[in-house]
Recover the amino acids of this structure.
């Protein structure tokens, strides 16, 4: 009954460092996405994927890379961390398909601070 | 440009009071979802409304989708401290094939005081 699992839960980085936020889901969902949540800004889409081998940019993709080699995993890479990337990051997954919009399942987030 | 406007941004009420949260847009959505987020956790889906004019009830929570599918409201009757949290609306629009793009409002932070 894991759902969407994000690691780590907390991380502190120095400016210029790189790191990967991990996301895994066990529901065989085709669609996965990464959001950042900042006070007063709501949830903003960074990158998304509609299936293994397919990724696309969201609303705020600069400074982030993603890949989708398997259905289960969708890691988010910060190439060179900047203080503006201090945020709470959420991974989400859902089914695709016809018949209406599918419910989106979120992980519990990674709280990232860039010093 | 904020596609979905939520109001109010903050709401602090006493236990037992009623409240309504609004989610408005100039765009038409295929469906609209409401989520609740508690501190330290990710958002959890409460309901999805799909048809214009649709009303759904979840215990003391009533969700309504506007006739034109541009707006929605969440009404809570006799609020309890357990209702405290961040309420997010999210509108879905078709983005090609069977895919949908989901856009979130900024959220309403509700505090229910005992």
């Amino acid at each position: 009954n894991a759902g969407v699992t994000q690691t780590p839960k907390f991380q502190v980085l120095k400016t210029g460092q790189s790191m990967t936020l991990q996301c895994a889901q066990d529901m065989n969902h085709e669609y996965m996405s990464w959001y950042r949540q900042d006070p007063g800004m709501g949830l903003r889409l960074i990158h998304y994927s509609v299936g293994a081998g397919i990724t696309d940019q969201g609303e705020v993709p600069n400074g982030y890379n993603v890949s989708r080699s398997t259905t289960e995993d969708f890691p988010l890479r910060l190439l060179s961390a900047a203080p503006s990337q201090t945020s709470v990051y959420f991974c989400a997954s859902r089914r695709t398909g016809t018949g209406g919009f599918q419910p989106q399942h979120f992980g519990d987030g990674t709280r990232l601070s860039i010093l | 440009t904020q596609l979905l406007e939520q109001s109010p941004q903050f709401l602090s009420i006493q236990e037992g009071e009623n409240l309504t949260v609004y989610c408005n847009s100039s765009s038409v959505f295929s469906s609209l979802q409401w989520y609740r987020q508690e501190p330290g956790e990710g958002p959890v889906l409460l309901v999805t409304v799909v048809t214009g004019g649709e009303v759904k009830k979840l215990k003391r929570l009533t969700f309504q989708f506007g006739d034109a599918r541009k707006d929605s409201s969440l009404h809570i009757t006799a609020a309890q401290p357990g209702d405290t949290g961040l309420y997010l609306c999210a509108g879905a629009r078709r983005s090609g094939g069977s895919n949908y793009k989901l856009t979130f409002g900024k959220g309403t932070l509700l505090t229910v005081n005992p």
